[in-house]
Amino acid sequence: MSTSEIDHLANCITTHAWNGDRSKVAISPNSNEVMIYTKKGNTFELEQILQEHDQVITSIDWAPKTNRIVTASQDRNAFVWNYEKNEWKPTLVILRINRAATYVKWSPLENKFAVASGAKCVSVCYFEEDSNWWISKHIKKHKSTVLKVDWHPNNCLLVTGSSDFKCRVFSAHIKVVDKELPRTVFGDKLVFGEPLLEMNASGWVHGVKWSPSGNLIAFASHDSSLCIANVSNLPPTIQKVNLRGLPIRDLLFLSENSLVGVGEDCNPLLFQSEGGNWAFVSEIDKKSEQAAASGDSAAGNARKLFASKVTLGAESVTDTKLETQHQNCITSIRALTAGAVVSDFSTVGLDGNLIVWHTKALEAKFKELKIK
Amino acid sequence: MADDDDGPVELEVQEVGGKTDAVYQSEVQQRQSEVTKLLNAGKALDALPIALNDPPTHTKNQEIKDQNSVIVISVLTAIKEAQVDQVVANLNDEQLDVLMKYIYKGLSNGETSTPLFKWHESVLKKAGLGSIVRVMTDRKTV
User: Fold this and answer.
1) A195: cis peptide before it, omega within 30°?
2) ipTM of predicted assembly, 2 dp
């Protein structure tokens, strides 16, 4: 079985989201349109283009059970799309923000979604039956743009990453929507918008994620580091892992003990915890031994030089092709399989590639990549 | 909306573990005397960990920082080019990050660039691009 499949869907992809049965993927090709592709056999076919936004769409999320798509854009709007009669019908959401929306995520029960924005606030939106409208409530308390949000499995807690160098946890409990207050380590009284926890980072916080159990928060910041905070007991114990390479933009927990970070290295990075101690394990996009050896032979280089002299008139070998499968920054990572351990995940990047990675095949090929 | 200020926001980044300037000053002087002793004895390799230890990053006093950087650069230039790789191999991650910060500080002065470029190459190979990113993003400067 192959370790990964690569598809070139656009010039540049900012974000992507899969539907419930993973037969369709919605991408934003760094424009104001959403392109929905359907998987036909081994390739993707463009099925529909959704046009409603005026500016670049920064984020898309597809609710698997209710089959609704929410899109957020730099035009300060968000739309919820419903599939009726073979068409996607948009409904405007009044976010009441005066800056771009940066990220959007459906809550686990899909009855709310949170929109992070440059207006230093997060808009938590829910559907009000009486007015037939999506209404937003604001979580302020940020000193700068909110870059990412993630929902806790209990549907009420929200972790946010902001460019004010902090990662915060808020209560996003809305009385009308959430029937009961969950018991959390942050106490029993959860007031909406109340900051429950604030953690410092040394750079803009690009990626935040709760672990599957909700006991850990991982946040990656622009100083090329990854912090994992254990919030099962307060005050949280925070571990910082400094990266060898460039900053991470997005995170995905494959299991409670395995975490994949993707970012400007163009290579998914695997981190694992050994009894609570997190450390970098390996890059996921690796060339197997034979390929690496044959790529660097002197004869091969001489041939490349001669070929480029003939075709391009070049005097030296200037190869701008990266060794990794992604040729540019990876912007987004999504899990394909649900369950306790994620066995397949997909990444998209600024090079316009959508790559699906299979961890079982990777484990078989490279011994170090064992997902726990 | 009430907080609609379009002006630049003063971000208060909490500085944990700052010592008073007086404490930093005495630490720097102590470091200076220890390092000079070792350099005079020809033990530049031993002087490096002491020079890199606990840099005065939390003070707002630029003079203290400059004094410390003079000490570090003097050790870096005292170590022979041939030994640089071996020395770098023995440093831990934290020391490598601090060293990279001092290399860039020294390069910005422009005087001792040749040995500093050798150090830069060696540290980059060991610590990767992440160390340079941390030099650029860390608000606690040396």
Assistant:
1) no
2) 0.81
